[in-house]
Amino acid sequence: MATHSKNACESSINGCRNSHPCEAQAYPKWAAQLAMLRLLRASQAYPARLAHPDPDRPSPADLPVSHIPPRAEDDLDTMRNRRLHALACLSAPLLLLLTTACATRPPDRVDDPTPAQWHVPLPSSGAPTLMAEWWRHLDEPLLVELIDASQQVSPDIASAAARLADARANRTAAGAALVPNLNGNLQASRGNSLAASAPGQAVTPITTLQAGLQSSWEIDLFGGLRATRDASQAQLESADARLYGARVAVAADTALNYFDERACQRELAVTINDAQSRADTARLTDLAAKAGFQAPADAARARAGASDAASRVTQQRAQCTLLRKALVALTGLDAGLVDAKLDAAPIEPSLPTVNSIGAVPAAALAQRPDVFAAEKSVAAASAEAGAAEARRYPRLTLTGSIAALQFRMGGFTENINTWSIGPLALDVPIFDGGTRAANAEAARVRYDEAASQYRATVRQAVREVESALVTLQSTNDRFDDATSAVRDFQTSFTATQARYDTGLASLFELEDSRRALFVSQTTLVGLQRARAEAFVTLYRAMGGGWQRPDADTAVSSASTSP
User: Fold this and answer.
1) HEC states along 51-67?
2) d(CA 543, CA 529)
3) pLDDT per residue over 192-238, tens digit each?
4) How far, in Å, CA of 35 to CA of 32, rounded?
5) Is 134-178+220-393+429-541 a CATH 1.20.1600.10 domain?
6) Domain residue spans in the chain?
7) Residue 192 forms beta bridges with which residues?
8) What is the distance between the alpha carbons of residues 182 and 217, in angstroms, rounded to a whole number?
């Protein structure tokens, strides 16, 4: 039967070659018949030749292939013209869809509510204050050590670094989607086939080896892949800024706790001095009362004042201990080591002077990493909205492959090389129940949310900067007066104490003078603490020395400390 089929195919081919009326209709048929002959060659003809060799009979593969008939060439020209016409008809709506899709992407920047100028007094003496790592420019080695330790163990910084690594990987994947992908495969199989063996012969095993490459490429007709890449790029830049912001926040929290603990120690020293003074007064008053020089009520009042002062010492010492525990938690250092270092450090820390800051709010706030991150979140949401919109339109993909095959059967080996380009596939969404439209609408809602969050971030940034400036200015203005008050109240108390010791002043006058001195001393300590907190708050509000990257600058590794 195999021989009969081959002879029929050969007769059909020869008939089409020699008979002109057959050319126009039989061209596609004889090409298909030739392909069938080659298939018979691989599956039946060669095993038969191995079993019954016939050197006088030509192989079907040796049959000459004539040129394509002239009328078949005309058919090819006609088909080519029809394809060009179909492509032109298809291109017009595609271009219209492309224009529509590109026009529906929302803007990647929104107007911010930044005021034209600050509405608070600005320091403007000297060069701009250096905000980046300001603690390294002070004579505070312990503060430097504590901030470095806290940044190394901070879970917030670790989480921000992980999010940055995730954003960088997503950016790489999104960029790779724009280029063709290439995959390779290797296959090997061995088996037998009764159809490939001659009747009465043993079944001959067949070994098949194959190696190939496959490639596919989605042509980004409507910018969906580019929008996804842009979104991942914006998210990467946002994550990079947020990592710096996390470093700024950790440094600020550590500095605030450090200055609070130092202020607590200063207030503890004031409280201890007050308690010792009251204890001395109570002891002397009690002796005078026993000798009949003071009333018993005065002695009782003096003892009550001493007890109250001792209670304040206990309370203040506990508060200082809690602040030290907070530093231990922030830095991850041993509690005993932190206590020893704090006990050895001076309790009067130094602060840099705020000379001047940016006079234009927009320029100053542009250096805040959280404002930049919120701005990039808007850009990412805009790109994601564009990508979601692009998914509503057709997708065009192109595939191709190249492969090498080898068949082994008995003593026969056949090598075949194949390649193909296509299909060029157009995937047109027709009906999805509104899924793509709903996804596009959800992306636009997320864009509106990101824009609203950006405006809120800018307004909060303006508030933080102006609040820090007001507090800093207020503490600076009050500091000289508070210092003078402490000095004068100290002079008054010393004189009243001397008069009390000689019996020229009453216990009430002494206690009133002591209370005024204590209040003035605690007020001065509170101003020192408020000034330190205002500076740290201003450092955080101004972005901690972060610099906005240029548009043409690649995203840094985010390893730079604030």
Assistant:
1) HCCCCCCCCHHHCCCCC
2) 21
3) 765 555 566 667 788 999 999 999 999 998 999 999 999 999 999 99
4) 5
5) yes
6) 1-57, 134-178+220-393+429-541
7) 205
8) 9
